[in-house]
Specification:
about 15% strand, alpha+beta
Length: about 280
């Protein structure tokens, strides 16, 4: 399925007294680059997340955010407070003063979060939520991919229209040029075969070969789009380079300003398609 490389998904899950948040943001990239933001720095969990992303997405700069919060942090603070009171009772006989700041309590909460991430049931919930997030992201990428392809098809149709006009305009231009050359030759002197004398001049500006190649590239692109398979972005970019090359040749060979203007139109459409294809996975 053709899809865009850009997309965003955000999923949350409440389980017991824990709220799990996963965000995935995808941007353009020639390769797949995964950036994981996880305050627990759980390496094992991080590797599982990376493997899941790599299996589902083939290209893009992927940013994954994993956050875990206590729904009712007061319960955990009370739990920590009870543990601290136990230690206070132990050291009370030695009359040691012990002050604990809010930041230290918060750090203790973070330690609790790291412990929670090691639980198999919590880990399973995280991976399940990640799968939901990936499915949602891919759906959004496919929806955007359809919009991009519609725009690409519209521009391909315009290039085809210009290409068809090339043939018609060139036939009119070559006939006009032929009459001009015959008139000039006639003024110089008498020639037994004027058509034969001017044919090399007409051949130098003949653009049929370029038009045939242009048709071939356009037909190949339409077949690729019709297959509706992934990894189309780089392929489209390659064909756009080829079409741009043909447009340059058409412009340089043609002496007709109208045909040169059409070549510029094709090059402009090619640049637009290349910008669109850069966003296709």
């Amino acid at each position: 399925m053709i899809k865009s490389m850009t997309g965003y998904s955000n999923k949350t899950l409440n389980f017991q007294n824990i709220s799990i948040l996963i965000q995935i943001k995808s941007e353009n990239s020639k390769n797949i680059d995964i950036y994981l933001i996880d305050e627990s720095n759980n390496l094992s969990l991080g590797e599982d997340i990376r493997r899941k992303i790599e299996a589902a997405l083939n290209r893009g700069k992927i940013k994954v955010i994993l956050e875990i919060e206590f729904i009712d942090s007061y319960k955990h603070i009370e739990k920590i407070k009870n543990q601290i009171n136990k230690y206070l009772k132990i050291i009370d006989s030695d009359k040691i003063n012990m002050n604990i700041s809010y930041s230290e309590i918060n750090e203790l909460l973070n330690i609790e979060k790291i412990k929670i991430l090691k639980r198999k049931d919590i880990r399973g919930k995280i991976i399940g939520l990640l799968n939901e997030c990936i499915v949602d992201l891919i759906q959004k990428q496919e929806d955007e991919g359809k919009v991009i392809i519609r725009s690409v098809n519209s521009k391909i149709t315009k290039i085809e229209s210009i290409k068809n006009n090339f043939r018609r305009k060139f036939r009119l231009y070559s006939k006009k040029l032929e009459k001009k050359y015959i008139k000039e030759i006639s003024q110089i002197g008498e020639f037994s075969n004027q058509k034969k004398d001017i044919s090399p001049m007409i051949e130098k500006i003949d653009i049929e070969e370029e038009i045939v190649r242009l048709e071939s590239h356009l037909n190949a692109i339409k077949k690729i789009i019709k297959k509706n398979k992934g990894n189309i972005g780089l392929t489209l970019d390659f064909y756009m380079q080829e079409i741009n090359r043909e447009a340059n040749t058409l412009s340089s060979k043609s002496k007709d300003p109208k045909l040169s203007e059409d070549s510029i139109k094709i090059k402009s459409l090619v640049n637009q398609i290349r910008e669109l294809s850069a966003n296709l996975a």
